[in-house]
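Re: Re: token formats

Sure, here are both.
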Amino acid sequence: MRLTVLLVLAAGVPIGAPATRADVDTKLREIRWVAYAPTGYYPSESPPVLPDKESISADLAVLREAGFTGLVTYGAEMEAIPDVAAAMGFKAMLLGIWDPFDGEEVGKALRAVAAHRNLIVGIVAGNEGLTNGRYSLKRLCTSMRSIRDASHKPVTTTEPVDFLLAEPRIGECSDFISANAHPFFSNRKAPGEAVQWTRESWDAVRRAFPGKPALLKEVGLPTSGDAAMSEDTQKDYYTLLVKTDVVFCYFEAFDASPRFKPDVIEQSWGLWRSDRTPKRIVGALPWNTKQ
């Protein structure tokens, strides 16, 4: 189904007034965000394997018990995620749309907004699709504008921080700023220097887009695949980062399986392992400690 048709079908749904910039800024700063891809999700399979509602519920129960109040997702095809998140008492969600030009996925996102307008704070249309050449900026901005008009929600997209800073038109198309900032890929592996790099990236984003709410959607360190990486370095990184003014989302909830991501580095960014057992960072989350 064409994207434009689905946007027309969404018209007239009582989805509420658009959020103000101040509303979005407050939510980004106050919510305890974690990036979430389900443990039972295997998109590289043919056909892709999607988790059932029971598996999603088991995942989200772990995150709520640990004290997270907000979810950042990457695709809208799993319609159970907003339903389960609302039932479990999550306070906010940034709903991802993996393919902003897929009419079926966009339609599911719009239905989720209509059903959970108080939960869904904003929409993230695409993740690193410009960097990877999946679509053009002009085409993306047009899609973002259509999704914004249909949903009455603020819309952004996500690219690596260096790409975002080099292409200011991304920020111009966005109601708020969302960036991926990974010190590991800039060879900053010790927790202290990794946090310093993250702070510098955050400051650069704030200077580039003054007045716009912003979130570093992916920050963290992997725990395997490199001799310098461990659960301790991951824990120490976040322990230092929470003492800064950086507004960020923990990346990511669960380790990925080899059926999802191809190498050990990409598989090991989770705060929990793929079997939902916790790594050391979980016991050191700031709202659960006195530090």
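Second one below.
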Amino acid sequence: MIVTVTLNPALDVTYRVAELVPHGTHRVSAVGMRPGGKGLNVAGVLHALGEPVLATGLLGGAAGARVTGLLAADAVPAAFVPIAAETRSTVTVADGVDATGFWEPGPAVARAEWEAFVAHFRGLLGDADVVALCGSLPPGVPIDAYARLVRLAAAGGVPSVLDTSGEALRHGLAAGPDLVKPNAAELRALLTPAGAAGREVDDAAHALACGARAVVVSRGPDGLLALTRDEAWRGVPPERLTGNPTGAGDACVAALCRGLRDRTPWPELLADAVALSAAAVAAPLAGAVDPETYRRLLPAVRVSAA
């Protein structure tokens, strides 16, 4: 079973418009509502692929109850720890070419609520094959939260995949996750002085030096770069897709978790992650993939040594 952790989930609302015009009024052609947050998107993709998955994290208030109901309606297994404050909402505006997101910061989490989650997480490790630790941290959760969860997973013999940014990523790297998946901008932001970055391979090597065992860098429509201490690979999609890229990185994490569990060799693993990421762009909402696009692109992904 793959356990996905979302400490700052959201009630995710997607508006579809013909064209996004700043400061303008828009007619919304369709509204989508679903459980939001990176880890929940990962869980949604894995569930759609028929993979055993359990979503966990922190939920509270009416928005949290709505998220719980939406997960149940989609038959996604979930076991969240309740908090007193209201779960945030997020809004994505998709115009068929790209997407613009509006993210609320999240609820204030009490120390006792965080410690209750840590105990809950420890209890889930006995049935976990891989854990995915995803997204931002809400107020009140310690900045080294992911580092603590990575160490607990390692102590239980469970591989971890970390997908976050900023100081949460910096602290998490120091705990030695089995795989970390920043995008190019998130990885560059770790380097000092700010903005001092070289080639993406060098940036990924920096993340390895910080403690990660493997790094997969999202490069948007240009695909993925994977780096371990012994190997370096690039995966490039056979075509550029337009649509909603919001959940592409989360679909990538889903593929990486599955491959880590199955010990898939890197060329095949990277090809799968590229194809699944592209299939997420072709889907209307984050947390979903277009199966036909996935099947069509997978054999055509180009993977080469970096």
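The longest strand covers residues 10-16. Residues 2-6+37-85+108-305 form a domain with the UDP-N-acetylmuramoyl-L-alanine:D-glutamate ligase fold (CATH 3.40.1190.20).
- S.
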